[in-house]
Design brief:
The chain is built from 23 helices and ten strands. The chain has helices at 3-28, 32-38, 48-59, 67-74, 79-100, 111-119, 121-153, 164-181, 189-215, 231-240, 248-253, 261-287, 303-334, 339-342, 344-368, 372-390, 392-395, 407-417, 467-488, 494-507, 554-562, 571-585, 614-638; strands at 422-427, 430-438, 452-456, 459-465, 519-527, 530-536, 542-544, 547-550, 594-602, 610-611. It is elongated. The chain starts with a helix and ends with a helix.
């Protein structure tokens, strides 16, 4: 491991420790106000038991039938993959729900909003599209498989002549009726119970037939302990059988007690892993290298196999409404189809119309698009390839785009550009910092939530961007200054602090597991070399300045700063000029209310960073307002 890499890891380690407690609390603290915001009507909330059945019904689908073949690919060692996949599925499901509560007091409502919080609007659009296409495509495939299965089950009966298309259409009608009748996930609870029971019955039949068939075999087919070459194929097949994460945000939102989500998910995943292990072990143990996928093809034909096929067909149809509910709830939320805005009758009408139209599209694709069940998996593979190989340079902080840009760093800079203006002036005898603090509400307490902070007795920091990121970086600056003083028994030079903070900020642009800081910090200091001024940007770049600006008014501020003779300006004069520049850069059309913050480091403050005295601040504001009025009068005279 290189020295540079070790340095970057050490830079990240402290912040990881600081964030651990708050991240854990997110997993356990679900207060009542959040629950009320999540689900407006308590009558539509699900119990832990209902959620258990929902998870089993969604996850334990047709994938269970190919598990014996997965063992054939990788050998008996693949049994460990079932336990591993179950553990990973449960863990990622819990992590996903924790992501919904990453911001205190607010719950994100969907998988797509998690993507937006992580990757921005583009990330939300991409994930939302892939999620909906995936779920709608799976439902279409399930309808096709159900129709084909029913057609094979009715062979030799009077309805045999109807054909596959009729049964595909009939399956679509059954799903349509269920989804139109269901309003929330809670309403399809009965379907989940029956779906789970059909799976259990099917598993019992498969195990029973396999054990019976073993008694009539003259010799057991050969099996293998492990096949390293085919282990990846086995892992892929087993992981496919633990899908369902796209529905977890909606299932957790439907619970009466979200605290029990982890318990419900763990129990359901354990139960699924158990029945998977039973089917896989019996299927591969009995039929060995001759086992086929699906396992029905290896079982002796008869009424029991027909019942098992009927059970899995019923399960597939019963899972469709649950899968679709996750899509419809988010779409109807975006379209504002609710009783609060439309009334009860219109809401039910519009919901029925919207869901019917979407089901019609799915049914038409299932009926008339050739090889629909083959096209959807191909589209899914293409979509996955896009996410893995093409899109990440826009979403990942650690990947360059083809033209050499890192978009997440640019998005962090946008957060800075949307903030109030911050400037720094290095003049004769000291440094002056000024900030335009936008007041988003008249209820805010004056002089609270300061954007100019002291990071050491001789160090001041002004910021433009996210305040939460500012506080974190100021704390880190204090730690660096304190550590330097402990080691060298003298105040840290401005260049050393700027260099260390630049490295720390830059470390957050190297790893995909973290995001860049959405803040630019202006560092003011007096050291042995005199007054110093540095600005550290979200990319980690740090540069020394005589005058600098950040925030939404930075261009106007830079123009005004360039007009000043900073080398001859006194600190008192610089305070007035800084106030004037902030007032000139302020956009009254967009932000009516703002508060001016001013601080300095100079002989008058004993070379310590402090906010300017109130009388100096009042004088500076008066000077700025007068200069602004004079400019307005000149413009009026010119007109």
């Amino acid at each position: 491991m290189t020295l540079h890499h070790r340095q970057q890891q050490s830079l990240l380690s402290n912040s990881d420790t600081n964030n651990t407690d708050s991240y854990r609390s997110t997993d356990t603290e679900y207060n009542n106000s959040q629950a009320d915001e999540r689900v407006p009507e308590a009558s539509h909330l699900s119990s832990t038991t209902e959620t258990f059945f929902h998870i089993v019904c969604i996850t334990a689908g047709t994938g269970i039938l190919q598990l014996p073949y997965a063992l054939k690919s990788g050998g008996w060692a693949s049994m460990a993959y079932i336990a591993l996949a179950a553990a990973i599925s449960a863990y990622t499901g819990k992590i996903l729900v924790r992501c919904l509560y990453y911001k205190h007091g607010v719950r994100l409502q969907s998988y797509s909003e998690v993507a937006e919080a992580a990757f921005g609007p583009r990330g939300r659009l991409v994930v939302r599209t892939l999620k909906d296409v995936n779920l709608l495509g799976v439902v279409g495939i399930y309808i096709v498989l159900a129709g084909i299965s029913i057609d094979s089950l009715v062979v030799g009966t009077p309805v045999e002549q109807f054909g596959e298309r009729f049964w595909i259409a009939a399956s679509a009608v059954v799903v349509w009726a269920a989804i139109v009748a269901a309003r929330q996930i809670h309403d399809v609870f009965v379907l989940s119970i029956f779906g789970t029971l059909t799976t259990v019955v099917m598993v019992v039949i498969v195990i029973w037939l396999g054990v019976l068939d073993l008694e009539f075999m003259h010799a057991r087919p050969p099996t293998k302990a492990i096949d390293i070459r085919m282990m990846p194929i086995s892992l892929a097949s087993i992981c496919f059988s633990f899908g369902g994460n796209l529905n977890w945000p909606d299932l957790e939102a439907s619970m009466k007690s979200p605290k029990k989500w982890s318990k419900a998910l763990s129990l359901a995943t354990t139960f699924i892993a158990f029945i998977y292990a039973c089917v896989a072990a019996v299927g591969y143990g009995v039929y060995g290298g001759h086992v086929r996928s699906p396992i029905f093809l290896s079982l002796p034909s008869g009424i029991a196999v027909s019942i098992a096929k009927a059970m899995i067909t019923a399960h597939v149809l019963l899972a469709c409404p649950i899968l679709l509910t996750a899509v419809f709830i988010e779409a109807e939320r975006d379209l504002d189809i609710s009783s609060n805005t439309l009334g009860v009758f219109k809401e039910r009408l519009w919901r029925a119309v919207f869901r019917s139209l979407l089901m019609l599209v799915i049914a038409l694709f299932a009926l008339f698009v050739s090889d629909f069940s083959k096209i959807v998996p191909i589209l899914g593979a293409v979509a996955a390839s896009l996410v893995v190989f093409v899109i990440p340079y826009d979403l990942s902080v650690s990947t360059y785009s083809p033209d050499g840009r890192v978009f997440q760093v640019e998005y962090a800079q946008k957060a800075v550009d949307n903030s109030g203006t911050a400037i720094g002036l290095r003049v004769k005898g000291g440094v002056v910092l000024a900030v335009e603090k936008i007041k988003h509400s008249r209820l805010l307490v004056p002089n609270s939530n300061k954007r100019i902070m002291t990071a050491g007795k001789h160090i001041g920091v002004a910021s433009a961007g996210w305040m939460s990121d500012t506080r974190h970086l100021v704390k880190r600056t204090r730690d660096e200054a304190h550590n330097y003083h402990d080691i060298y028994k003298t105040n840290a030079p401005a260049k050393i602090i700027a260099e260390r903070m630049g490295m720390y900020v830059q470390a957050y642009t190297l790893y995909s597991a973290v995001r860049p800081f959405g803040v630019s910090t202006i560092l003011a200091c007096i050291d042995e070399d005199g007054p110093q001024l540095y600005m550290i940007e979200p990319s980690g770049q740090y540069v020394g300045y005589r005058g600098c600006a950040a925030g939404k008014g930075k261009q106007a501020a830079k123009t005004e700063i360039e007009k000043l003779n900073l080398e001859e300006l006194t600190v008192r004069e610089a305070v007035k000029e800084a106030a004037r520049i902030i007032y000139a850069a302020h956009d009254d059309a967009k932000d009516k209310l703002f508060e001016l913050e001013l601080s300095w480091i100079c002989e008058e403050s004993n070379n310590l960073h402090t906010h300017v005295p109130q009388d100096v601040l009042d004088e500076a504001i008066e000077h700025a307002e007068k200069a602004l009025d004079d400019d307005d009068e000149m413009e009026d005279d010119e007109e």
